[in-house]
Each structure stands twice: as C-alpha cells, then as structure tokens.
Amino acid sequence: MSASSDTSLPGGASVPSDAGVDSSAVSLDTRVSALLTNKRRVSALKSLGIVTVGDAVTYYPFRVVDPVPLRTLSGIVPGQASACVVTVVESRVRPMSSRRGWRLEVSVVDARPGVAPVTGPMATLVFFSGKRPYIAWMEQRLHDGSTVVIRGMAGTFNADLQFVHPDVDVVADSASLDGVVERVTRPRPVYHANSRISAEHLHETILQLLSRVDGTGVPDRIPEPILESRGFPHRREALAMVHDPASVEDFHRAIGALRYEEALVSQIAVLRQREQARAGRTFVCGNRSMVEGYLKALPFSLTDGQRRVIDVIARDMASGHPMRRLLQGEVGSGKTVVALAAMLQAVGSGHQAVLVAPTQVLAGQHVRSLRRMIDDAGLDVPIHLVTGGMRLARRRRVLAAVASGEPALIVATHAVFSRTFQAPDVAVVVIDEQHRFGVEQRGSLGRDCEGRRPHLLVMTATPIPRTAAMTWFGDLDVSELTELPQGRRPVTTVVVREEDGATMARMFAHVRARIDAGERAYVVCPRIDDDQGVRASSGNSAEVEDDDGFEEPYADVESSADGEANHDDGGRDGGRPPLHAVRQMADRLASLPQFAGIDIVTLTGRDDDATKDAVMARFASGEAPLLVSTTVIEVGVDVPQASCIVVFDADRFGLSQLHQLRGRVGRGGTPAWAFLISRADPGSVAERRLDVVRATMDGARIASADLEMRGAGDVVGDAQSGLRSGFKLLRVVADAQTIRDARKDAERLLDDDPGLESHVQLAGAVVDFSRASETALLGA
Ligand code: ADP
Ligand code: MG
To answer: What residue spans of 498-548 are helical by DSSP H?
Structure first.
C-alpha cells in the first residue's frame, strides 16, 4: 500500500498514520471516529454514510482513470494525458475579461531536482475561478520555485503548451518525490464525493483506514475453493486492488470478485428465505365453490393463460404450503380477474384476503370492479377499503371491522403496512403492480398471521429481466399471462412534435371527435403546478404520490435513490422550457376552440381521497370526458370508454411507463389512440426511444429497449435497483452472468452445508444482508 504519509498531498494532512491507536484492535466494525482526529473529516464521512472502517473500505469508486505516462515537457504530445515533474518559474493572476472571475497562469519548466531552473521548454498551467480565495490558495501553493507533479492533457495555445486545470501535487521535499510520482502515474480510482469532502481527500482517507486493517481484520466471505477456481483475490487484497490498483486489469478483477461476493450473499439469502417460507404453516384453502360461482358469472370467457394461472393458484392455496407467486402479465391481460379468484378462494374457505394497490385511485377502482363482479355473481362478501387519506372516524370503523376477523375482501394502499392495520385471519395477500413498491415492503406482508403464513401473490405488468427477478424475487415462483383477452385492439400510437402546430390542432380535433362519439380522453403532464420543482426527469414515476402515506410514508422511495447512476441520456438541458403542468394545461385546453363546451377535470397526487373519487366518477360516467392528470393514472386505471391519451413531454418518461399509460385506453373494444407529444431534438436518443414505443405493443420488447438505453433502475423503479437492498456493486441486469454463477454456487453450498457451519463469515454476511433489507423495511 502506498497510503501516503506525504502531508503535502491534497488529502494527506489530516490523517496521521500513527495516531497512537492500538492498531491490532482495528476491525471493519471500528468506528472511523476512533481513528481520525479530524472531527470535521469524520462528520463529512458520515454525510456519505461512512461510519465504520467497513463502510469506508466498501465505499467503492465508480470508475478508474487510466494511468498516464511520465514525460518531460519536450516529450509531451498535445491531446494525450501525461504527468510531468515541473518547477514553477512565474505566476500571475488576471481578472477575466468576459466573465466575472479570475484566471491564474503559472509558467513551469521541467524540474531538475537540485539544479536551479534555467532554460528549456515552458508550459503554462491555467486555472479559472469565480472564487478569489481559491485562486489565492492555488497561487500560494504554486509559488515560484516549488516543485509540482502535474497530470492532465496538454493543448497548445499560441504555440505554447498549456494545461487547463491539471491535477497538481506539490512535492514538499525531494525525498517524497518518488512516492508522488508513483501515485500519480498509477491508475486512479474516482469516487463520488460531496461538498464537504473532495474525492481526493476521500480517497486518501480510505487508503489510510484500509492500511489499518490487515487480512485477519478483513476475513474472506467467499469460500476458499471458489476463490481458487474463479481466480479471485482474497477480500483484503481485493479491497486494496480497488482503492489502490497497480493496473486497470487488477482493478476490474477485484471489482469482479467483490461483485460476485454480493451476488453470492444475496443468492444464499434468497434461497434460504424461500426454504423458510415454504417450511412454514399456512392456511389450507380448499373450498372452491365461491370461486366457481364467480367464474361462471363473468361476462366473458377466460383466456387460456388466466385459466391456467387460476388452476395453479388453486392448487397452491390448497396444498398446505405457503404460496409465493409472481404473476407477470402484459397491461390489460386481465390480472385482476385472477387475483379475485385467489381472494375468493380464501374468503370461501372462511378467511380474509387483502389486495394492496399502489395508489389511492387504483384502490378505489379495484373496490368498484370487485363489487361489480361479486354482485354479478350473486355473492355476499363484504369489501373494505383502507387508505391513508381516510377520515379518522371512518378509518377506525373500517379497521375495527377488519380486526374482527370476519371473512372479507380488504383493498388497501400503503396503509396496510402501518402498525395500526390488524387483520387477524388473512389467508392471502395480493400485491398489485409490484413495480411501484419497494422490494422490501412486500416482506412485511409475508408476516405470519397467528403462526400461519399467508399465501402471497405479487402482480406486475412490467416485465422484469430474469436475473433481476432471481435477485429480488428469487423466493417466488413465476407465472405469466402472455395473451390479451379477445377483442382488445392495439393502440394506434403517434409521436407528435409539439412545435408542429398544425398536427397538434388536428390531434385536438380528433380527440374532440372521439369525445363527441361518447368516448373519453386522458391528457397527462409530468408536473402538477408551474411553481413546483421539476420532478419528472427520467424517473419511473414522474410524480411523487405522496398522499397514501398513512403513518409510515414510503413516498421518499423515488427521491432517495438519486445520484450516481447514469439516469438518463444526455443530462438535463438547461435551456429547455419547463415541463408541462396539469393546472396550466387544463386552462390551456379549456381555452381551445376544439374543447368548447366540454367539462375538463384534473387529477393529481395532491388531491384528497374524496376529490379523487369524485373526479374519477365524473370522468368514468362521461359527465367530464376530458381528464388532465399526472401519472397517478399510470397503472391499472380501467375506464373502458377511454379511447385517447395525450402524453405531454413524453420524451421525459420511461418507456415502460409510456407503455403503461397507453394501456389506459382501448380497454372497451373500440379503436384507441395514444399521442406522445415530444420536444426532443430530431435524431436524438430521446426521439429514438419514443419510436420504440410507437413501433411495438410488446411490453417485453419495450422494457428491454428501455434497459439498453437507460439503466435497470429506471425500468423497474429505483427502489428496486439495489440501492436499498445492500448492493453496492451488483447490477441486476448488467451482471446477469455473475448472478447466475453465484446462484449455482449458492445452491451447491447449501446442499453440502445447509447451515453454512463451515462458512462462518459467509453465514454472517448473509444475516447482515437479510437484516439490512428488514431495516430498510422499517424505515430506519
Ligand atoms: P391488468 O392485467 O392490466 O390489470 P385488468 O385486470 O385491469 O388488466 O383487465 C383489463 C380489462 O380486461 C378489464 O376491463 C377486464 O374486465 C377485462 N378482461 C379481463 N379478462 C378478460 C377476458 N378473459 N376476456 C375479456 N375481457 C377481459
Ligand atoms: Mg391491473
């Protein structure tokens, strides 16, 4: 390790390498506050989530910079990065003419240690800043005569060699020169830092802390035979190779090993969860008479897929082993019908059934459609709606009814995750549109009910890549609905450039014509108000649904995962006009001649429950046939007469999200249209993305295109991208092969040694991993 003791380095000053701490006692659990004397540094680290030595050494760089060759100034090739040892001969500060700020110019020549600089090639280092103190500090560091190691790419300016903002390391004395040169010419890991600590200081601190723990302090988790067969370094060595790589290959080899370690730990955790889940006692729901009555009364015949899945679920629920099933089905494939069959099997067998919906709107709609189907079948089953926004008195009444344990269908939003929700006899939990929930949240519903574990059915319309499913839902069996019910037509999808006024006008006229024909139309905008902070960006959910919080709000899920990941293509373009907002759009549409005499309603996550219900009722009945809303209508909303959807700023939505939105129309057998309004530049990635949605109705194709063009996190929601699941390196899609390998190894390890008794370190890591998921669940 070259953990530097050279205090002239950017970050070296505050971490004495010998602080009089008994280094034999240092382990990964040691708090950094016990080792670092600089309290500000300790609190800066804490702001990055680094509290222990273990946190620090697993604070991984997000990339590594190639090493650069050491050259003399005369050997420099403009346009290539290189490092040089130079001596400062002159410096000057000038106010910048065009902008406010200062420019520091430093003339340097090749350093010949011990010899005063005389002649030879010169170069100029240039630093700009609006901050005078920064310039002053830099000027003072680069005073005449100082020896400096610079690193950067040289250009030429008026035939002069020029380095703009090179990295500089001031060499305190000739003895430390070799160390600095070696460090500068090695590959350099790059870290995410923040305003309280620079990437360089962070790196320095990590190296210092890592040097305090030896191999016994960092025991291996991956069993020795696997390390050997896969050619992985030991854990302590891997960490050193990541934070202080001798070569770029070493860096990647070590990252590969650490990634594999995460995959192995998580796969073992998942396999064990599955084992435990299956071993538990559960409800035996053998009475199918209610289900059969209901299926007979349906006004349509089931698709083959629906029939098959309903049969499998029937067997699961009667088997005596807890069902754990993921149902994936294209938008409109009829998952609700399947869910109700499962729920009625529980109720018909004398128990309760819970359906959890991601939004208030969807929960309300589920209640209405379940009510209709149940009434049509002539069944007498109570349905309770439990949501966060309910008035206290009503909520108390409903909660009391639910707590009595009488057989019933219970439809709920996140409220169901609250502690005041008590349903003593729940035999099945159905979670609708799983991709809107954090992974961990479903865990709490797997809680035992009086010693018995409810059956679990998780439904999603977002096709989840196989390895992602293996990682997040590895403990679930998977069923699929691949066909759409008869009579459903593909939605005609048109991409419209917003600046094309003539086409926009024709589109509005078309929407009006459909409304006059008795149909309904949605208009979707990414924001609620003009004055609201921009939120839509590229996220999976353009609007934060924050009103279903009840007592333990999970609304922060979307915003918490920002940061490093390559969230979108091309960054936020500062010059673009603000994204469209619901309120302003409603006003604008109301003033258009095309919508004269039409009642327009709006719906956003900010509306209270009663308003939402009233708005949806007016829209569904056709009294107000034009609904302007945020993405609150994204999933599951089912108004059969709706035939048109217009999505503004479509280029800012995720592809799967657009596909979901498009799934809101054409549900009643009439032709349907989706208009994706774009302000993307012609030929841009954003425009090509929209073309994917236009060209296919295949949700799986769209999801994989989305994956290619973005990152996994965006397709299934950041909450599931791993950030909250204890993964620091593992990417569930990009690392598919690693996950598959780890899965095989995990199965073999558990077969040979179910208790992992000869793999104590690995067993401990698995427990930590599982506990981390639980902690995230409790919102700690
Ligand atoms: P999703 O899978 O997207 O949740 P839904 O369960 O909301 O789909 O069903 C979409 C629509 O299709 C509903 O109006 C539902 O009544 C209808 N539907 C479901 N199954 C069938 C079927 N087998 N034949 C015809 N219509 C069906
Ligand atoms: Mg649905």
So the answer is: 501-516
